[in-house]
Predict the structure.
Amino acid sequence: MEPPDDSIRVMRLWLSALALGALAMSTAAQPALPRFEEVQPELFAAAGGQPNAWADFDNDGDLDLFVGFAAGKPNRLYRNDKGTFVETAAAAGIADLTDTRAAAWGDFDGDGNIDLYVGFTRRSETANKLYRNDGGGKHFTDVAKALGVDAMGETRQVSWIDFDNDGDLDLFVAMRDAPNLLFRNDGGHFTNVAKELGLDDPRRTVGAVWFDADEDGDLDLFVANQNGDSNGFFRNDGSRFVDAARELGIDAPGRPETSGSNGPSVADVDNDGHLDLFVAGYGANFLYRSDGKGHFTDIAKQMGVAGGDKATPSRWGDFDNDGRPDLYVSSYVDTAVNEHDFLYHHDGARFVDVLATLSLPHGATHGVQWVDFDGDGDLDLALANNNPNGTHSLYRNLLPADIAKRSVEVMVVDARGRATRAGSEVRVYTAGTRKLLGAGLVDTGSGYCSQNVMPVHVGLPTMDRVDIEVTALTRQGRRVTRAAGVTPGRGVVAVKVGG
């Protein structure tokens, strides 16, 4: 071939420079990612943290933190006093020294005070505890045995959910070494109905999340199983649950003993109004895009989140308030003290790991929570690392104030103002239109071994007013409650739903 003449060379160089300039302009146009700063590092320095769960247990308007620890270290309850934390577990009566593997907040008795279920390991020979909140934000009393929920086993995910849409919270307990349990709340006592409803799954379950995957008005259950066991998806057919995971192609069959799934979490990844499912795992992660009718397509590879390490917890959160959910995943390589964490930033077309640019430590291992603990409108980050040199650190998001306020935070409660609506869906639209800006799920256990009672956070692309729709699951089906013309950045919006 003849070499190009000088004019063609000049043209190619000019086009290359033009392309590089356009790329630089495009990059410069992208908003900078926020920085994070550690909060009270001496207070949160202890290693051994496993579940970490948030709720306003003292009803003072800000979120408090419970952290469960490995054997020999007392569990901790951090009361949030306007952004400063004080440890109060011993005074509150919940400073167990037993190896704690699960924690879930929920108002099981509907008295307006949020209670706490704590799950232990079988080797501890200690039954799980249900700490009833005595009110006033000062003390809890263990009522597990009296109410019939003092299960014993290798407890993992625990979730307070209303599976039968009767208005009170039932209790699901996933076990790694025994069939899973489902305790129906019968008003003053609980009855294990897992076997009769088809949920006494004997596979080695370590993660679970509930959501109305087929949008038929009741909660379905995805369980993540370990040690080569296939995963389960239990469709709620009203009178019974049916495992449809194999039929839907989301069971991940044929895995070796060294592979399995862990922390599942739910978000509307593509802002189409349907809730999608991410599943962290040993060997591979999955990102199942939902069509809203109970069918899923795995898009993990094309979206850049398929992983390859041994991923355990995961948690969605729009940490830069750009209107797209981002994803934190913690994993380890070869050994449990060789962590490799990922913070997948959603750039619109796919996810890009940006953890290295934010100076955050690796090694959450068990607990990851996105939470606006200081009420400024952006999501802060709480981690829990149970390795010998780990911490259970809390990081404040330092987004500029004008961007931090570019969000809405929606607290979904029932008609009496109680937090009994886990699994309700929140959707946010441009005011006066049907243009969807984002969606979220009232927590049912997304992530790993924890459940929160806290507002649903939706980041927004602008400060324009929005309409909020909350879809609650009731005996009459999916019931929508609307709040119109809401201004972002004005604090938590409480939406009461009936049914």
